[in-house]
Every structure is written in C-alpha cells, then in structure tokens.
Specification:
Blueprint lengths: L3 H4 L1 H20 L4 H13 L4 E2 L4 E9 L2 E8 L4 H20 L2 H10 L2 E7 L5 E7 L6
Parallel strand pairs: 3-4
Antiparallel strand pairs: 1-2, 2-3, 4-5
Helix pairs in contact: 2-3, 2-4, 2-5
Length: 137
C-alpha cells in the first residue's frame, strides 16, 4: 500500500501554505465572515488544481457560510485504506494549524470551521472529516 502522501513533508508544507494563504487573506478582507471566507476560497481556486505530492491534488476550495471546504483527489489508495488512515490525516491537518499561531488565532477570530473531502481518481468519495472552530484552540 502506498501512503507516501501521509508521510510527505511536501504535503504538510502545502497544507500549511494553503491554510496560511486563506487565513492571511481573510484577515484583510472586508465584510461578514462568510463573505471573507468565500473571497478567500475564490483566490485559492485560481491556483487550483494544486499538486501536493505524487498522490494528492487539491482540486478546489469552496465556502459555505462559516465553512471552508477542501476537495482533494488521492491516487494509490482505496476507500478501505483511506478509512484506516483518515484519523491520521485529520490530526495532521489540525496540527498544521495549531502549530501556526497566526493561522490559529485568525481562524478562531473569524469563527471558521473546515471540511475535507477526499475522492479517488474516478471521483468516488473515499472519505471526509471536519474540524470545528473550537478545535483550533
């Protein structure tokens, strides 16, 4: 089984970059939080798809009121394998933000939550998870 995308420092760096980009832009945007989040999603989408490593691509980012939604395609793994790893992936995403004090504070300030959806190459959902705003603390 290939789990390179979980061990890759490039994916961690890419996730951190994407999160920092969204948070930084949110901090300077005007208007209600949901508008700020939507504007940031639009900016990130201009760079999508973003290849994070040999197995993972960020397809797009969407916004739904206070929620940032990340949509990925992952190759080299099936649904059963993903279900085994989803907790590790979730923890890695949370740690990336918690280790970045500026990002963490901004996410708390704007009341944002995040949802992550992972699809296989055929567009079938492998799995998903959410990180609630309170978890950024």
């Amino acid at each position: 089984m290939k789990y390179f995308f979980l061990r890759s420092s490039s994916i961690r760096k890419s996730l951190a970059f994407i999160m920092m980009l969204m948070v930084t832009l949110c901090a300077f945007a005007k208007g209600p939080n949901y508008k700020r989040i939507a504007e940031e999603a639009e900016i990130v989408n201009k760079a999508c798809p973003i290849k994070l490593d040999d197995y993972t691509v960020l397809n797009n980012v969407t916004a739904d009121k206070d929620t940032i939604v990340y949509n990925y395609t992952v190759t080299g793994i099936n649904k059963t394998q993903f279900e085994v790893l989803v907790l590790q992936i979730r923890v890695a995403a949370l740690v990336q933000v918690k280790n970045n004090e500026a990002a963490r504070k901004d996410l708390l300030k704007i009341g944002a939550r995040a949802e992550y959806y992972y699809y296989d190459a055929d567009g079938e959902l492998l799995g998903n998870f959410a990180i609630e705003n309170e978890e950024w603390k």
